Amino acid sequence: MARAVVDSLRRLITHFWKSMRCCSNRRHAEELLGCFGIYDSASRTLDTKMNEHVLKEFYIPKYIIVPDSIVEELDRPPSSPVVVFINSKSGGQLGGDLLQTYRQLLSESQVIDLGQEAPDKVLYRLYANLERLKSNGDILAAEIENKLRLIVAGGDGTAGWLLGVVSDLKLSRPPPIATVPLGTGNNLPFSFGWGKKNPGTDRQSVEHFLYQVMNAREMKIDSWHIIMRMRAPKEGSCDPIAPLELPHSLHAFHRVSDTDSLNVEGYDTFRGGFWNYFSMGMDAQVSYAFHSERKLHPEKFKNQLVNQSTYAKLGCTQGWFCASLFHPSSRNIAQLAKVKILKRHGLWEELHIPRSIRSIVCLNLPSFSGGLNPWGTPHHIKARNRDLTPPYVDDGLLEVVGFRDAWHGLVLLAPNGHGTRLAQAHRIRFEFHKGAADHTYMRIDGEPWKQPLPENDDTVVVEISHLGQVNMLATPSCISKSIHDPSTPPSASGHHDDDEASAEESDDESGEERRKFGAADTFRIPEDVDIAHFS
């Protein structure tokens, strides 16, 4: 009787172990098997061989990635070939450890250290080589190009860097991208089901992630174009870039339409793009304080938990929780800028901003500040009355949300909590004129900067418009919603068509500026910048 029970347990645990082959919790099954004398060295050898067989599905021969390498024949094309980009300085030591593990499992040529080589150089070289090989009749090259998937490990800034480069390649079939959460907020990975906690760097964790990439579904998300125009400061080296600590996703742009009212001597134009959010005000001020502290003392920011606790402390010291006492009303959004959204027929309409709002967020994804959803899901009656929709990531609309202070932000932790819903728009403009404040703080996708404001009769303009879409990879636990989901109401998919048409008609003169991010320049980290400071 006892022997029968043991045999049954053995069969049960063996079945459990087989089902856990690609899971990070497999070691628990192995320990149980070891107790029954089942999982021995022979089992480990068999398991390793099976893993190596699965890993071949991700393998790309060196000659595909590095031109003029020796041609390597494969038995059959890989089903899920990947190129991995890792910010080796993200997550303290995690980035470096992850780099080593991926290179052990795959090949060194298909695992790129972003501290050594920028993604635009790698991808331009890869696709140029693929075209050359295909023209020579290489069938494997065609198969790999068709099935290629990209993995990027780093913070939201690192992920945005790669997304910008892929956007600018203008490929007929752009590769979908999976994101490994190595930053502090990790809003991009969380939005698509990859988690927000820093991952394990051991072999089993990486194998599990690769298995998820193989089975992930493709999902489109909107990309957003941002243009900022301001008078060049009189002091400092500012030809053509003003001496601002701008994020790496913004760069100086020389072409300005002749009909533009700001196209006069002494003005600089910056442009770039984002995928998650643009924010302005007190939340960006706290973020700026965090990034400044990390630049001064990088040794103190070695893991996600320490980073998050430091961020919370800075929120207190910056007065975010006592904004009415520490934050002058002259820095409230309504006192800083006129906010306009483009309505139908190309007409700009001024958006009413309550005077108490100290922070405004233009949100594309349902994750902000480490997993919070400021927009929430509007009640269907209120949504219908205000012409609002649920937040889709591919509907060409930004959700515009306001916050009074940190206490207001804490309502996001409650069920159905949300900020002050101001509008949904596919194009929004901020116009800053002379006021009591001489600067404000802005942030795009986790990268903050301190923005000087006009001193005289000048105008600083920040304009955001819909640009296009990129392909992401999503797991079954993805929280982002698409207008193409079967459960989406039919009316949602056509919400902004008229608006976009009017936008194109009303701004033909600036079409050159909106044609691309220029991401090969926009998202290239300068040689003198330490990517440890890049989220």
UniProtKB/TrEMBL annotation:
Name of the protein in its database record: Diacylglycerol kinase
Keywords, comma-separated and alphabetical: ATP-binding, Kinase, Nucleotide-binding, Plant defense, Stress response, Transferase
Subunit structure: Monomer.
Region (Disordered) location: 479-522
EC number: 2.7.1.107
Entry's Gene Ontology BP terms: defense response; phospholipase C-activating G protein-coupled receptor signaling pathway
Bias (Acidic residues): 499-511
Taxonomic lineage from the root: Eukaryota, Viridiplantae, Streptophyta, Embryophyta, Tracheophyta
Domain DAGKc: 77-230
